[in-house]
Amino acid sequence: MAAEIERKFLVFDDRWRQHASEGSVLQQAYLVATKGETVRIRTIDGRRATLTVKIRTSRNRREEYEYEIPYTDAKEMFEHARGVLQKTRFEVEHQGYVWEVDVYSGHHRGLVVAEVELDGSNDTPPLPDWLGPEVTGNPRYSNRVLAKGKFIPTNATSCFRVPNRRRA
Fold this sequence. Notes:
Blueprint: E1 2-11, E2 24-33, E3 37-44, E4 48-58, E5 61-68, H1 71-78, E6 84-94, E7 97-104, E8 112-118, E9 131-134, H2 143-148
Antiparallel strand pairs: 1-5, 1-8, 1-9, 2-3, 2-6, 3-4, 4-5, 6-7, 7-8
């Protein structure tokens, strides 16, 4: 078992792209999707697949179990999904932390979210200037809810204003 402790933010602009890795195309399907527990199938770049079980234990902590599975099995499981979404994931290093930036496609085109995994709930990573408001724990931005199509954000970057931040 591995604990997943993370913070999630909307992304303000494209400045992150200059430091980003090559992206991976992800397709996610949810077989079980409740507020506290999920069972997810994910395909990666149309070649690999994982099965993940997550159990929420607090606002920003989940116990996570992830296993590689045959790609053909994953594609079959997609037929039984309670929700599917597509996104491209990029990794961006910022002051010792690796941020995962998800650029959504399909119904969620325009939504860009960044999350950072932490070692402990008291970790305070330095925030990049390209981040917008924090949405950690906001169910509207959980992949589970997005996959079900219950919340379809409009042009995500125009729905908030980011206050001026001091540059380090």
